[in-house]
Amino acid sequence: EAQVTQNPRYLITVTGKKLTVTCSQNMNHEYMSWYRQDPGLGLRQIYYSMNVEVTDKGDVPEGYKVSRKEKRNFPLILESPSPNQTSLYFCASRFGQGQGYTFGSGTRLTVV
Amino acid sequence: AQTVTQSQPEMSVQEAETVTLSCTYDTSESDYYLFWYKQPPSRQMILVIRQEAYKQQNATENRFSVNFQKAAKSFSLKISDSQLGDAAMYFCAYRMVDNYGQNFVFGPGTRLSVLP
After folding, report:
1. Is B40 near chain A, with CB under 8 Å?
2. What is the average pLDDT across A61-75?
3. What pLDDT, on the 0 to 100 scale, is given for residue A89?
4. Cβ-nearest to B103 among A58, A98, A102
5. How close A72 gets to chain B, by Cα (Å)?
6. How far apart are CA A104 and CA B43, in angstroms?
7. Interatomic CA distance for residues A57 and A9, integer angstroms
8. pLDDT at position A98 over 90
9. pLDDT at A97 over 80
10. Within chain B, which residues score under 70 in pLDDT?
11. What is the spatial distance between Cα A62 and Cα A55, in angstroms, rounded to a whole number?
12. Closest chain A residue to B47, measured at CA
């Protein structure tokens, strides 16, 4: 089944403790992206990647890192999480320019 | 910068009736893509419908259709014969056409309730 898999689905962590949210797609998509969803703000892009080793900042990149060492994987790294990073996170991938994103099932992150 | 506005934070519709969700956007581009995504309580983001700005014809997917008014920068979603499973958050999204840009710009969403 064609899908974007992200883990974990739920995560509670403490301020300052480094964490990684994994994302993997099996559709051979070139484009991948991370979004955060907050009430009343819709989805805002954190980082995106056009291909292996090609990444760039989205609208809200502060406090996040990404890497794209393989085409299928695009992990999101929070080096020192803070409470304002409590949010619902989505990984997404797509193939062509005009195509919509296929989204993962989301990761609910709480930083206390 | 492009912006997407959904002026209806919440809407409700009776089962089997028709409802229209509004979306407006701001752009100086002449070619772009527009999308509607559905997010049910499972929180999965599901692509509902897609429109290419250079196409005059409004996109249709089964019970879902759009009214694309390019000059007015309006992209409303019409759901016909509403079903209980249509209850969800609906997000309108815009994407510019270029070789490098990645950004989808999402609106804040409209929560749709379907009443039995």
Report:
1. no
2. 97
3. 98
4. A58
5. 17
6. 10
7. 24
8. no
9. no
10. 98-103
11. 14
12. A100
